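Weekly sync notes, structure subgroup
Attendees: PM, AL, DS (notes)

Item 1: joint prediction request from the bench team. They want all two components modeled as one assembly rather than separately. Inputs as received:
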Amino acid sequence: MKIITIGREFGSGGRELGKRLADELNFDYYDQEIMDAITEKKAHTSGYVESAVAFHAWRTFPLAFHHSFADEHAIHTNELIAQKEVLEEIVKEGKDCIIIGQDADVILKKENPFRIFVCADLGARIRRCMERAEGKEKEFSEKEMKRNIKRIDKYRAQTRELVSGSKWGQRDGYDLILNSTDWEIKALAKATADFIRSWYKD
Amino acid sequence: MKIITIGREFGSGGRELGKRLADELNFDYYDQEIMDAITEKKAHTSGYVESAVAFHAWRTFPLAFHHSFADEHAIHTNELIAQKEVLEEIVKEGKDCIIIGQDADVILKKENPFRIFVCADLGARIRRCMERAEGKEKEFSEKEMKRNIKRIDKYRAQTRELVSGSKWGQRDGYDLILNSTDWEIKALAKATADFIRSWYKD
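Output from the run, pasted for the record:
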């Protein structure tokens, strides 16, 4: 079973990269929205996680921008436990997959995932977020966006430290760190897919 | 003109990667030994840098392990100036090239180089260095090797800070960070060459 994990700075396009990479490689794809939805339903229905994972119920989930700010909430241990449970269910399913965030690289360490981190210059991240937010129900000024980005990245770094004691986004924790600043994500996904094919061939 | 710069942790195989990448892409290749030799001769012969670069005098230089410890010396401003001069001469020549170390990514920033950094787990770096040192004139114990590695990395970080004020090996200073721990450098070079071809195509 091949697992690729993707950590990312907010606004770096890491999630889109993951989705496209999953398409390129024909891997399953999981991100926070998908896992949250699985966890939430699970509270009401026993066996839901297993069947959701097995039947790919999440395939129909769109990539939704406004959901990304869900990251803002405080760190709740219960959520982390639920997250871990879903991750383990995904592993049990045994299908090659890409997992965005969730500190999956740390939690699933013994599965030996290929660990990617995506970063970009702050200016590029603000631009990307402003473009994505256009026409959405809530508009942000550039200044607000910058504040959001920084807050979310801080939250991600904190969660990671809580989960693993290791530093978020530092080179020694990853197999590949990509700077998306000057890339179209589509082209970056193709280039990265080639790189990863070599990795699994080697 | 395409310039690829490679920063690296000592023992990560960054130099070998650069050499192989140069072969893969048919780029010129420069590292510290080559540039030192050019600088040294220059002191005696006016016009030497220009002709050395132009006539590829360095092509015959072997990759020498023991030279790597040349990094140990203190930081001399004169050397940095000489280095810069050679780098500028290389740019003037206008041929696609790969430059190892020398803070070339910072010094040649306006040439918009593709900036790679290569890292690896400390254990892997010690192993690689021990293998390379085998049968050489000076043998190191594992402990000595570890100390050497740390000293050289510290030196590199310091030089970089002196030259640029920016941090060595931090994700925001590079386009691509590669962890060579679990790769054969030959295979990594092929995968990286593919990635870079996509970059220049994009």
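Discussion: The two ends of chain B are 16 Å apart (CA to CA).
Action: AL to compare against the crosslinking data before next sync.
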